[in-house]
Amino acid sequence: MSIKTTHFRDMNQKSEDIFEATLVIGKRARQIIRERIARNEIRTFDSNAEFEDGEDLEELEPDINYVEMPKATTEALGEFLDDELEWTYGNKEGEKSAEE
Asked: Which of 4, 10, 12, 72 is the most exposed place for a label (fewest CB within 10 A)?
């Protein structure tokens, strides 16, 4: 997997606020991770699992069917820069929107 530099000005051209862009990308990355977990592409590890005597975490055999996926943040950033993401601002409870 190659590393590609992304300039802040590229993100700033897509959004008026760099912090807004960062939040949108971060939320999308979390959505991608949740989708991967739901499709069982990511296996979660139970940290409370008990091992039998003599069994060590390092000795466990790795999954042979490992598939390398792009990082969720990289995928979310690509979607943001390609104008594939849309977002809206939610109203706080009790606030009236401009349409009401």
From this structure: 4
Q: Is the pTM of this model over 0.70?
A: no
d(CA 1, CA 90): 37
How many Cβ atoms sit within 10 Å of the Cβ of residue 72?
A: 20
40: left (phi over 0), alpha (psi -120 to 50) or beta: left
Query: What is the chain's Cα-based Rg?
Result: 20
Can you tell me which residue has the tokens 């939610």? Answer: 90
Q: Are 33 and 42 in contact (CB under 8 A)?
A: yes
Please give the DSSP secondary-structure letter assigned to residue 77.
Answer: H
Could you tell me the two tokens for 60? Answer: 């466990």
pLDDT tens-place string over residues 4-54? 788 888 888 888 888 888 999 999 999 999 998 888 766 655 555 665 555
